[in-house]
Amino acid sequence: MCGITERVERMERTRTERPDEVGGAAAGGAGGQPARPGAMTNRAMATFSPADEEKRRGVRRMKLTATGLLLFVALVYALAEWAAHAGAGAWAGYVSAAAEAGMVGALADWFAVTALFRRPLGLPIPHTAIIPTKKDQLGVSLGEFVGENFLSEDVVRQRLRAVGIGSRLGAWLAVPEHADRVTAELSAALRGALTVLRDSDVQAVVGEAITRRAGVQEIAPGIGKMLEKVVADGGHRRAVDLVVARAHDWLVLHGDSVMDAVQGGAPGWTPRFVDRKVGERVYKELLRFVTEMRDMPAHPARGALDRFLTDFASDLQSDTDTRARVERLKSEVLGRGEVQDLIASAWTAVRSMIVSAAEDERSELRLRVRASLLSLGARMASDRKIQGKVDSWVEGAAVYVVTTYRREITSLITDTVAGWDAEHTTRKIEAHIGRDLQFIRINGTVVGSLAGLLIYTVSRMLGA
After folding, report:
1. What pTM was estimated for this model as a whole?
2. Per residue, what are the HEC states of 106-126?
3. SS3 category, 421
4. End-to-end CA gap in the chain
5. CA–CA separation, 366 and 354 (whole Å)
6. Euclidean distance between CA atoms 76 and 88, whole angstroms
7. What element of type H or E holds 183?
8. Which of 63, 130, 202, 449 is deepest in the core (most CB within 10 A)?
9. Tens digits of per-residue pLDDT, 281-304?
C-alpha cells in the first residue's frame, strides 16, 4: 500500500510540474524573444506565491488520500470476493457489494472532478477539461453575471440606501480629527493642482475669457445704472469733497505756477504789469471758487455737477452715441498690453496667496474650511433632509456610473480572463479549490459504499 501511494505521489508531482516548463518557454516567446505585452497577464497567472504553493501541496495530499481510499476499497472488494468464493459466509457478500459500490462512486467522482481541469486519462471525451477549453466563455458568463446581479440600478440603489451614506458621512465629518484630515487632504490637492497648472496657460485662459466676455457684454448701461444709483444716494459727494480739497491745497502751494501760466498766455503787445495783475486776479478768483465749493455743500457748482452726472448716467443707458463711444473706449482699453499684464499679475498674486493659505495650518482659509466641514458634518448627522439629499446625490452618481460604464466594467473581467493562459489558469484555480473538490471523491466513496450496502441488503431481503 505504501509503495503504491509513493508511486502515485511521484506521478502527481511530475504531471503538475511539467506545465511550468512549457509555460515558462511559451512566456518568453519563440527563440528567447521578449514576450508580447499581452503576455504580462499570463506571466502573472503563472506566478505562484508561497500561499499558492502551500495550497497546491494541500491539494496533492488530498488527492493521495482520495486515491488511497479508492485503492483501499478496491483491496477490500478483492478480499471480499475471495472470501465469498472460499465459503466465508453471507457477510462477504455484504462487504463485497459495499466495496464495489464505493469503487464505482469513487471512480465517478474522480471523473467528474478531473473533467473540470483536464481530460481524464488524456482521452478526448466530450465535455471534459471544462475550465481550460471554456475559459473565455466562463469569463463572458462571469462578466454578464456581475453586470446583471451587481451592477444593476436596483441593486446599487438598495445597497447604498441600506448603507446610509449621508448619516455616516456626517457623523464621520463631525469628529474634529476627521475634519482636520479632510482639510489637510483638500489643501494638498489644491496645492498640487495649482503647482501643476502653468501660469502662462492660466493667464492666457483667464485673459481670453475676460476679454471675450467683456467684448460681447455692453458695459455702458450697467455703468449708467450704477452711476445713477450712486448719484441718487449721494455717494459721489465724498469724491467731490476729496477732489476739491486737493485742488485747494494744490492752488495754495502752486500759486506762482498758475499766475505764470496766465501771464504766458497773454498777447505779446500787452504790458507786463497788466499781465501780472490779470494773473493775480485769475488766481484769486480761482482760489475763491475752489474754497467756496469746498466749504459750501449747497454750492451751485456742486448742484451743476450733480445734474451733469445724472444726465450722463441717463445717456449711458439710453443715448446711442454715448453708448457707442463707451464701447469703443472699452475695446481700446482691453486691447492695450498693460491691461493684459494686469490680468497676468493678478492671477500670479491670487495663486501665491492661495498656495500660502493652503500651506499654513492656521490660515483663515483652512480654518474656515475646517469650520465648514464640522458644521456640515453636524448638520448631516442630525438633519434627515440633508441626509436624504446626500444619499440621493450618491445614488444618482453611482447609478450613472454603473449604467453608463457597465459594459466597460464587465469587459475588464472578460478581457482579463481572456488574456490568461488556459493551462496556468487551470492550475491556479485547482490550487485554490482542488482540496475541497477532493472531498467529493472521498464522500463519493463513502456514500457509494453505504448505498451499495443498502441496495444489496434490500435485494437480499426482497429475495428472501
Report:
1. 0.47
2. HHHHHHHHHHHHCCHHHCCCC
3. coil
4. 38
5. 10
6. 14
7. helix 176-196
8. 449
9. 888 888 888 898 888 888 888 889
